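A reminder from the course coordinator: this example appears on the midterm review sheet, so study it carefully.

Given structure:
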């Protein structure tokens, strides 16, 4: 049971026991660089729902200039693929890279609450979807209060979204 995944070379394997609680597509510069992509798609879960089934992740801790908080990137020392971003801001929580799952489509993504965050640093050509909450930065202020999202009526390039 659960959802299996791993790094590119297969030395590092994991299993998520439960469905993720939410999916966050993060466009901050930290995530762009870790994901080697326009943004990172992270499935959030409690850290103790993730079990490493092969290998041992290397861990690199770095402060994200987006949130000002330290994030630990768990990655394969052999091939360099990141499997998790573990935010120190939210103890006990992990963001598993959707790209690391063997079959991310098995996660029933359309029915999991999602958001695009740090769109203020999104690449200009990134197409943002309609109907999904979008935030200039994080969806939660540092004092824990929630921030009103932008909801687009049609898919729009990031450069055309008024933040
Ligand atoms: Zn690997
Ligand atoms: Zn990020």
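Designed residues:
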């Amino acid at each position: 049971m659960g959802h299996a995944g791993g790094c590119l070379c297969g030395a590092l394997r994991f299993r998520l026991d439960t469905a993720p609680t939410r999916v966050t597509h993060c466009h901050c510069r930290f995530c762009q660089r870790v994901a080697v992509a326009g943004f990172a798609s992270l499935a959030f879960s409690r850290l103790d729902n993730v079990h490493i089934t092969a290998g041992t992740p290397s861990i690199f801790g770095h402060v994200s200039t987006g949130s000002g908080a330290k994030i630990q990137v768990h990655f394969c020392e052999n091939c360099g693929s990141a499997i998790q971003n573990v935010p120190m801001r939210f103890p006990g929580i992990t963001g598993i890279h959707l790209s690391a799952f063997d079959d991310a489509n098995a996660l029933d993504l359309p029915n999991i609450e999602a958001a695009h965050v740090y769109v203020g640093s999104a690449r200009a050509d990134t197409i943002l979807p309609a109907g999904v909450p979008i935030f200039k930065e994080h969806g939660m202020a540092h004092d824990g209060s929630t921030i009103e999202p932008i909801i687009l009526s049609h898919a729009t390039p990031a450069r055309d979204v008024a933040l």
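The helical segments are 29-35. The pocket of zinc ion (ligand 2) is lined by residues 26, 28, 30-31, 40, 66, 118 (CB under 6 Å).
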